């Protein structure tokens, strides 16, 4: 039954993604984070301590709401519990949504560079207003690589952990809440430096194992897709620490090596220039087709992960 719940949720994500104008659960988590952040800024002077309260309070609130929802559903029918479980697991996966949004960057670039910049701005935290076409393509590749872990493999990892203890949805949304906290406040620049510290560190901790396992899965995917998987391994070993985050460089290294391009470098976040190490070697100039290759790596990596997790659940 657990394997069936997993496969159903993955198929729903692949088929439906996030329908337009649909109130995704993450939207409500985001509103909760914003509400609690505003209250903390008003009432707590020590924003470093307030950041821990923000993270812990949001996590406990989300998990408690899900627990109550499933508890009430159990009173109605076990079938309702399964339906809610499938729905919440489906909404916790982001492959189709990411694919759709990244392809908008490709489409935008076919129109003009301003449209490409605007499309990318919805996906990244950096300033995109002055990016060249090559930088836009690299940005789309980077966010797809990173979100192969954050939006696909890590959620599957925590679903698997959750099935072991009978709480797949709770574990998944614990992770998704931390990931959303990090995306909203986990920046090492003002005004988030202090209040976002706890969220950023929690996200680093929860992504530590998935980033490493997921990168190996991504290497397998590059081999299956006949990309430069040997260089992928070489760059992964060499550049896996070339990022302030302990995790982000892992998937980016795999893709940079597989495509023989260089990622990373200097970017602007919230009007502040941030120096970043480079990842990979610039043997080839990035082009739009490489975004498609990265999307294929993401989907195949998810397929491999789902296959392994399904076998684990059946056995």
Automatic annotation (TrEMBL):
Which GO biological process annotations does it have?
Answer: cobalamin biosynthetic process
Origin superkingdom: Bacteria
Question: Transmembrane helix: is it a keyword of this entry?
Answer: yes
Task: Check the record and name the NCBIfam families matching this protein.
Answer: cobal_cbiB
Kindly indicate whether the keyword Transmembrane belongs to this entry. Answer: yes
**What InterPro entries does this protein map onto?**
Cobalamin_biosynth_CobD/CbiB
Q: Name one GO cellular component term.
A: plasma membrane
Q: Which residues cross the membrane?
A: 47-73, 79-98, 156-175, 205-225, 297-314
Q: Which HAMAP family match?
A: CobD_CbiB
GO molecular function per UniProt? ABC-type vitamin B12 transporter activity; threonine-phosphate decarboxylase activity
Instruction: Sum up the protein's function in the record's words.
Output: Converts cobyric acid to cobinamide by the addition of aminopropanol on the F carboxylic group.
Q: What is this protein called?
A: Cobalamin biosynthesis protein CobD
Q: Which family is annotated? A: Belongs to the CobD/CbiB family.
Q: In which pathway does it act?
A: Cofactor biosynthesis; adenosylcobalamin biosynthesis
Tell me which species this is from. Answer: Natranaerovirga hydrolytica
Q: Enumerate the UniProt keywords alphabetically.
A: Cell membrane, Cobalamin biosynthesis, Membrane, Transmembrane, Transmembrane helix
| Pfam families linked to this entry | CobD_Cbib
């Amino acid at each position: 039954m657990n394997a069936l719940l997993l496969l159903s949720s993955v198929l729903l994500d692949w088929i439906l993604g996030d329908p337009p104008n649909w109130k995704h659960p993450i939207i409500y988590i985001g509103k909760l984070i914003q509400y609690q952040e505003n209250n903390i800024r008003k009432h707590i002077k020590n924003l470093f301590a307030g950041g821990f309260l923000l993270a812990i309070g949001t996590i406990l609130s989300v998990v408690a709401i899900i627990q109550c929802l499933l508890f009430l559903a159990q009173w109605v029918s076990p079938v309702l519990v399964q339906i809610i479980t499938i729905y919440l697991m489906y909404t916790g996966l982001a492959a189709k949504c990411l694919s759709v949004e990244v392809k908008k960057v490709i489409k935008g670039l076919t129109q003009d560079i301003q449209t490409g910049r605007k499309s990318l701005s919805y996906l990244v935290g950096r300033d995109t207003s002055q990016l060249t076409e090559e930088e836009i393509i690299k940005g789309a590749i980077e966010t797809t690589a990173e979100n192969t872990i954050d939006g696909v493999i890590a959620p599957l990892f925590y679903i698997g952990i959750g099935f072991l203890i009978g709480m797949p949805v709770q574990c998944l949304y614990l992770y998704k809440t931390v990931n959303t906290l990090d995306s909203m406040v986990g920046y090492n620049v003002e005004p988030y430096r202090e209040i976002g510290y706890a969220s950023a560190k929690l996200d680093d901790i929860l992504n530590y194992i998935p980033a490493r396992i997921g990168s190996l899965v991504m290497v397998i995917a590059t081999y299956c897709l006949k990309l430069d998987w040997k260089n992928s391994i070489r760059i992964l070993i060499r550049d896996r620490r070339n990022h302030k985050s302990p995790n982000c460089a892992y998937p980016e290294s795999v893709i940079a090596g597989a495509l023989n391009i260089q990622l990373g470098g200097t970017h602007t976040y919230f009007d502040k220039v941030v120096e970043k190490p480079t990842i990979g070697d610039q043997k080839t100039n990035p082009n739009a087709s490489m975004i498609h290759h990265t999307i294929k790596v993401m989907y195949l990596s998810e397929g491999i992960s789902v296959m392994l997790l399904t076998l684990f659940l059946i056995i």
